[in-house]
Specification:
By secondary structure, this protein is of the alpha/beta class. α1 packs across α10, α1 packs across α11 and α3 packs across α4. 52% of the residues are buried.
């Protein structure tokens, strides 16, 4: 199945705001934790979306400091666009969709998934943390209506457009006629209102904002294809694993504790979203949060890769034996 891509992708090297635009919520590097270990600074790329509330909140709660880590959060548009920064050493870890590591694995770049971060909601939830949305008067109300339309995703050739194509095909539409356009999540509503796109794939808070303003929830593509699919994973390089295994081990342990904490501290996660995204408390209260977990479901990622191969997004499935290293 052929996929139509609009030539609007921004350069990968420019995708990260690496110069001074960071969030920090931990002691300075010369401080030590109660365990007596020396603090180490790590730079972690993450999207400016609600799911990052778990990371922000855990930083404020001191969880990373307890593992002797000071975290600088570097804004990113998508996991795939963080890969060049990982390879150059500008960042140490990234939180993003698995397609970046999928492609890097095929190219032998030594990018590794070291843990999960968040999953979409199970089928029983009846809703999900991301959706394709349209304006209320667009006439686009179901997945089949997306055939022949311009649909935005934050990163071309990743889980968004792959699951959208599958949902459209399952609904009887022709996914090869969709024109996917790369638009950052915060810009999607403006692009819809300007008529530059017909529908947008967005997470919260943007999903709720557009729907709350009279827009349509067209489809929850993950729910329609692989319910509970991994939304975001933790990524690093094989070089870092080989050169500093203790740092990677500390990061894994801290992130696992952070995600366990986030799963049981919803109010604190929402407060972190308000603080770091500058949205009203009422808006944050309505956000659909994902399932925060460090446990990765490799079977679901293999299904996603198979769909991508079927739609010509990937030439072949990655080598999962080397791609996923959670211990």
């Amino acid at each position: 199945m052929k996929k139509a891509l609009a030539p609007l992708a921004i350069a990968a090297a420019a995708a990260l705001a690496l110069a001074g635009c960071v969030d920090t919520a931990a002691p300075t590097p010369d401080e030590t934790t109660g365990g007596g270990g020396e603090m180490r600074t790590i730079r972690v790329a993450a999207l400016p979306i609600a799911e990052t509330g778990a990371l922000w909140g855990a930083m404020d709660a001191g969880i990373f400091a307890d593992h002797n880590l000071e975290v600088e959060v570097v804004p990113a548009q998508g996991g795939a666009l963080a890969i060049p920064a990982l390879l150059s050493g500008d960042i140490d870890f990234a939180i993003g969709q698995p397609f970046g590591p999928f492609r890097a694995s095929q190219q032998g770049l030594g990018v590794v998934i070291v843990g999960n971060y968040a999953n979409a909601l199970p089928a029983s939830a009846g809703k999900d943390v991301n959706a394709v949305v349209s304006l209320g008067d667009s006439g686009i109300t179901g997945p089949a209506d997306l055939a022949g339309k311009r649909v935005s995703v934050n990163s071309l050739g990743a889980a968004g457009d792959v699951t959208i194509m599958e949902a459209v095909e399952d609904a009887g539409g022709d996914p090869s006629t969709i024109e996917f356009v790369e638009v950052a999540f915060p810009d999607a509503q403006a692009q819809l209102e300007a008529g530059n796109i017909d529908a947008a794939w967005v997470p919260d808070p943007f999903m709720s904002q557009i729907a709350g303003a009279g827009g349509n929830i067209v489809v929850y593509p993950y729910q329609a294809t692989i319910p509970g699919l991994s939304l975001l994973t933790s990524i690093t390089t094989q070089d870092l694993i080989d050169s500093d295994p203790q740092l990677v081990s500390d990061y894994r342990a801290a992130m696992a504790e952070a995600l366990d904490w986030a799963a049981g501290h919803e109010a604190e996660v929402r407060a972190a979203i308000v603080k770091n995204m500058g949205i009203p408390e009422a808006a944050a209260a309505g956000i659909t949060l994902p399932v925060f977990t460090a446990e990765i479901n490799q079977g679901d990622l293999e299904k996603l890769a198979d769909l991508a191969v079927g739609y010509g997004v990937l030439d072949s499935a990655p080598d999962f034996a080397t791609l996923i290293q959670t211990k």
